[in-house]
Amino acid sequence: FLPPPRSFCWEHCPEQAVEAAPEASTSCLICLEPLGDKKPYAPLVCPACKHAWFHRGCIQEQALRDGITCFRCPLCRDRGAFPFAMLTMGIQVPLRVPSRDRQADEELSARHSRCDASGCLCPGGREQAEEAGPWELLLCSSCAAEGTHRQCSSVSSSVADWECNGC
Q: Keyword annotations for this protein (predicted)?
């Protein structure tokens, strides 16, 4: 179920419930410009990875280009919580196929879903992942191109972020 499209002026737009504000040096993941206070609307963050920050206008352009079938977080590629949160925040996502051919690179853009630790310890194998616990799959907080089970890289349950060796 998709919420109906909403539009807001700068005084009445909803605010995202986020655990932390972006650091002063944080840039928009799409245009790479500093988030700053240049625009009247607060920047938006992906509710799934909590590391991807965007200008409202930048993520709106992506939504218009992608359409509902391909709209996802550019960093973690989440297609669950991300589109719903952006719709709730007033981002319009057209109910159509993308305006460019995304089917050709769909396999390349799929969310990473396996443990890349040199010695995966999971009894279910590299492809198994749980929501929490020792077999929770953590994606690299910088590139999201590699993953590890908490147990395989000795990441405690109190740690929310993990970075691969390449980053």
A: Ligase, Metal-binding, Zinc, Zinc-finger
